Amino acid sequence: MAPWDYPDFDDHEGVHFFRDAASGLSAIIAIHSTKLGPAAGGCRYWTYAQSGEAITDALRLSRGMSYKNAMAGLPMGGGKAVILADPRRGKTPELLAAFGRAVDSLGGRYVTAEDVGISDADMVEMAKQTRHVSGLPVAGKGDAGGDPGPFTAQGVYLGVKAAVRHGLKRDDMAGVHVAIQGVGSVGGGLARLLARDGARLTLADVDSDRAQALAIELGGEAVPADSILAIAADVVSPCALGAILTAETIAALRTPIVAGGANNQLSTPEDGWRLYARGIVYAPDYVINAGGIINVGLEYLGHGDRAEVEKRIAEIPGRLDQIWAESAASAEPSSIVADRMAQRLIGRG
Ligand code: NAD
Fold first, then answer.
1. HSE (CB half, 13 Å, CA atoms) of 254?
2. Which of 163, 180, 319, 326 is the most exposed place for a label (fewest CB within 10 A)?
3. If you take atom 8 of ligand 1, which residue's CA is the nearest one?
4. Is residue 218 a part of any domain in this protein?
5. DSSP notation for 140-153
6. Reported pTM
7. Domain assignment of residue 17, yes or no
């Protein structure tokens, strides 16, 4: 099937396929829009059962980056790369170099960064082949850049507080019960920030030891991964994988707020309506989780220091408030309102 026959194609400007026999690289770079600037979005290293799943993943993530970058006010378009992991060969410096050359061949139309399965050390390998890389270790203390995870966590933390203000009419987080799905870079960072405020934490991860260790450290409770979305809490914060909000999981939610860092949380657009019908406050994922791209985007553009990154991350709550206000006024889900705002910004509204 050609890329444009996929349901998620959505008029991508380009979908590029790369193969390098010597290193074993198979990669896809999807460029959704360059209307606002170079298409920026991370590179995912993942094992896919079929190559069609990798194409769908790249297309969905790439469109999400167009929306995320536009809503974050960055002069950047949206793109995403996936490397189809081959467990027999692994992630070698040769493979990362071949991917770096693939990025370079697009001449700056696509700028890469970390995503699931890719570290800042991997970015250093890629950067030997191309300058169109962000998320590199920072040179100076006050500079933008480096691992986006902590910056994403900071934005999600501010977004969760905004959702609590909006949904529960509470200004402080002491005793507010937050259930976090996935306690890796983003979810773990979020948990630490919330613990400082005295929030009550319930944590889950498929790596149950990881959730248990963090729960002990922060004084929370760890629960099995398959129960976290149905915990009775004030907020559920999805910080693991996408497509976790479905007809079934939404029906089982026992929380008035969903606000977390995972990309593509809604399984389908109808799930936004399902949340809305249940009166659940939802923070659109690509708005609340923009902290990391703000950090690496400003690093790449070369006009940002750490203070500027923090200033822009602090604007996330105001953007969410604007979306919730328009959602109330138009009687539509926040996800639909956010999509419309983003589409207008990239000239597709
Ligand atoms: P990570 O790999 O550091 O952490 C993810 C954690 O989720 C891991 O501990 C993993 O074991 C756990 N997990 C996986 N499946 C799970 C499940 N079904 N139930 C419970 N736990 C599960 O990744 P991360 O960087 O923290 O990213 C988390 C999410 O946030 C991803 O969807 C990612 O695309 C998104 N995101 C990350 C950033 C960033 O800056 N890192 C930015 C924007 C969005």
1. 7
2. 326
3. 184
4. yes
5. STTBS-S-SHHHHH
6. 0.95
7. yes
CATH of the domain at 13: 3.40.50.10860
In a domain, 102, yes or no: yes
Q: Is residue 113 domain-shared with residue 177, that is, in the same domain?
A: no
Whether residue 31 lies inside any domain: the answer is yes
| Pocket residue to mutate for ligand 1, from 186, 214, 294, most atoms within 8 A of Cβ | 186
User: What are the mean pLDDT values of the chain's consecutive 10-residue runs (349 residues total)?
Assistant: 94 98 97 98 96 96 97 97 94 98 98 92 97 88 84 98 98 98 97 98 98 98 98 98 95 98 95 98 98 94 88 98 98 98 94
Ligand 1 mean position, distance from CA 333 (Å)? 25
Tokens of 113: 């960064």
Quote the domain boundaries for residue 274.
149-289+317-345
Residues 302 and 37: beta-carbon distance below 8 Å: no
Same domain, 232 and 264: yes
Instruction: Identify the CATH number of the domain in which residue 321 sits.
Output: 3.40.50.720
Distance in Å, CA 240 to ligand 1 centroid:
4
Dist. CA 330 → ligand 1 center (Å): 33
**Rounded CA gap, 181 and 211, in Å?**
9
